[in-house]
């Protein structure tokens, strides 16, 4: 094969424009926003085809935990190649996914006992939903078989496949697909920043919880399950919940006899300072979905963890058809599971979770001065994840005209300081690798301040 390394950047850009259709990308402005052409990575930095280095401040869209080319992860994948890259889990097994399941469950809430693999976050959530539906369909009690509805919150995001889109609640991403998505029960939005005139944040939070309860009271007996992103709604704009909400919701859902699915795709794998965000709230979910960081950001592997109670409802003679008929070609991929095992090793060997908690406070204190910036409306944080919402006029709560793509402009400007960011609208997102250093946190915040000033002075 011809050597395709070290091609000039302009050639790669030309072919990219000619052949590649990018996700979540308006192609009419793509090239003007100076996208990176990454050819390598090293530690917390991405290396562009022109040799420039950029701090990967969104962890390659929230999956990279320990930087690029981490020795332990590289070695685990390389070593696995000396054994086997992949073999099927359909009716068979493989040592890597077996061992990873056992070790994941050691980290997970005690009530969880089984791991079902897939290969991305969307499927990990859809699997939980399909399992919940089938679980209820296989109950002897007829009233339980009426549990066929799913509830998601407004502003939620659980991925881009049809089930995930159906449970999601972000109009910009989801409304277009109305004709092909199934109906769900819509809970309230936890957004408190964009609240009605005259309401305090506190009142908005209380209304959110009361509205949530009302929906459960109305639909509780028909609900197969409720899907919640614990800690923070990520793609919805880094939106936090009132303190104690998940614990309250879990109790309410249990009292209604339904099931709780926690979508930990973004906040799981250490982001909260606990391995899983639901553990930070002391909640035992019926399903826990994990993907993005599960392999340290190396290989697409996802998992849906559930209880033995759910699992046992799928047992019986094969001809009864209680089997869970779902699976993907690459389910439980061995290279990925090897990377997953190395990821857990790093958590164990390096005291990652305590460090995340320390850096959570550090990041908060570094962001604090931004409250005084004339275009910063809100700063939200959960663990080592944060969103800074930019506004045309925070006093009067006026957003920027979306056509100006201010968030994107600010992120592009931060590139001058060697920092790579990707916003959600006008929310600047901080999702750095968990191993980001204190100096890099300072650098990151300074680059964002610089970017805001450059675009908005
Ligand atoms: C990214 C994300 C998903 C979807 O994961 P994919 O791997 O992109 O399919 C689901 N839920 C949450 C909370 C996410 O952040």
What is the fold's blueprint, element by element?
Elements: H1 9-19, H2 27-30, E1 38-42, E2 45-48, E3 53-56, H3 59-62, H4 71-81, H5 95-107, E4 114-118, H6 121-137, H7 142-145, E5 149-153, H8 162-167, H9 171-174, E6 185-187, H10 201-219, E7 223-228, E8 232-233, E9 239-240, H11 245-255, E10 259-263, H12 277-280, E11 287-290, E12 302-306, H13 308-312, H14 334-350, H15 352-367, E13 376-381, E14 386-390, H16 406-414, E15 419-420, E16 427-430, H17 438-456
Parallel strand pairs: 3-15, 5-6, 5-7, 7-10, 10-11
Antiparallel strand pairs: 1-2, 2-3, 4-12, 8-9, 11-12, 13-14, 14-16
The structure holds pyridoxal-5'-phosphate.
Summarize the structure in words.
The chain is an alpha/beta fold. The chain folds into 2 domains: about 170 residues, Alpha-Beta Complex (Aspartate Aminotransferase, domain 1); about 280 residues, Type I PLP-dependent aspartate aminotransferase-like (Major domain) (Aspartate Aminotransferase, domain 2). About 40% of the residues lie in helices and about 15% in strands. The chain is built from 17 helices and 16 strands. Strands 4-12-11-10-7-5-6 form a 7-stranded mixed β-sheet, with helices on both faces. It has a 4-stranded mixed β-sheet with strand order 1-2-3-15. It starts with 8 loop residues before the first helix and ends with a helix.
Task: Return the CATH architecture of the largest domain.
Answer: 3-Layer(aba) Sandwich
Radius of gyration from the alpha-carbon trace, in angstroms: 22 Å
Number of strands: 16
Instruction: Say what the CATH topology of the largest domain is.
Output: Aspartate Aminotransferase, domain 2
Termini separation: 51 Å
Helix content: 25-40%
What top-tier CATH class of the largest domain fits best? Alpha Beta
